[in-house]
């Protein structure tokens, strides 16, 4: 049985994006990128909302990767090797391999998928992740806290949901980013 893991870069004040939709402040350096590579290497299926999928699908393309460092090229391969499910009522097709569209987020279907999976699953995108949190589906929360305060924007964690967490791991990177991994306690 796999675990459903919510993983994200977030500002210190808890935002995925600032008020203009920018997240350039969270671009990882090589050390942090290598961390994400190792984390994602164990993910069998990634669940995305439409906007997160549209952001991530750049990893399917090779044209921009030629001059990138090996750690970045490695991530592209890791991303391509994972299955992807995109929750969208508006997308008519996907442009990446190993990807399918689901029109609605069905908590029971996600629960069955997690229970049947031999590998862990990730969920990305604030809106779809909030649904997973609300339905008690998220097993772990992995956050990389970036040393920046953006003052507002898209919250990394859902509003109106209480989560009791247990710290499982933490680490400080040389660039000031702090990694925290929590299990979601079932009450």
Description:
The chain has five helices and ten strands. The protein is α/β, with parallel strands linked by helices. It has one domain (4-184): 3-Layer(aba) Sandwich (Dihydrofolate Reductase, subunit A). The strands form two sheets. Strands 5-4-3-6-1-7-10-9 form an eight-stranded mixed beta sheet, sandwiched between helices. Helix 1 runs parallel beside helix 3. The chain is globular, with a radius of gyration of 16 Å. The model has no long low-confidence stretch (mean pLDDT 94).
Explain briefly what this protein structure is.
By secondary structure, this protein is an alpha/beta fold. The protein has helices at residues 30-40, 50-56, 70-81, 107-116, 126-134, and strands at residues 4-11, 15-17, 43-49, 83-87, 99-102, 120-124, 140-146, 154-155, 165-172, 178-184.
């Amino acid at each position: 049985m796999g675990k459903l893991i919510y993983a994200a870069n977030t500002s210190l004040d808890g935002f995925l994006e600032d008020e203009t939709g920018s997240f350039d402040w969270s671009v990882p350096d090589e050390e942090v990128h290598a961390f994400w590579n190792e984390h994602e290497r164990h993910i069998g299926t990634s669940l995305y909302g439409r906007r997160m999928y549209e952001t991530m699908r750049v990893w399917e393309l090779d044209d921009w990767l030629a001059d990138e460092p090996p750690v970045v090229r490695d991530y592209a391969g890791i991303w391509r090797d994972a299955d992807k499910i995109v929750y969208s009522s508006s997308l008519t097709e996907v442009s990446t391999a190993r990807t399918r569209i689901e029109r609605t987020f069905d908590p029971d279907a996600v629960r069955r998928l997690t229970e049947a999976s031999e590998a862990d699953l990730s969920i990305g995108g604030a809106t779809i992740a909030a649904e997973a949190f609300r339905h008690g589906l998220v097993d772990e929360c992995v956050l990389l806290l970036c040393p920046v305060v953006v003052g507002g924007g898209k919250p990394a964690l859902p509003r109106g949901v209480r989560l009791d967490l247990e710290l499982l791991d933490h680490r400080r990177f040389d660039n000031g980013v702090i990694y925290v991994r929590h299990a979601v306690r079932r009450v």
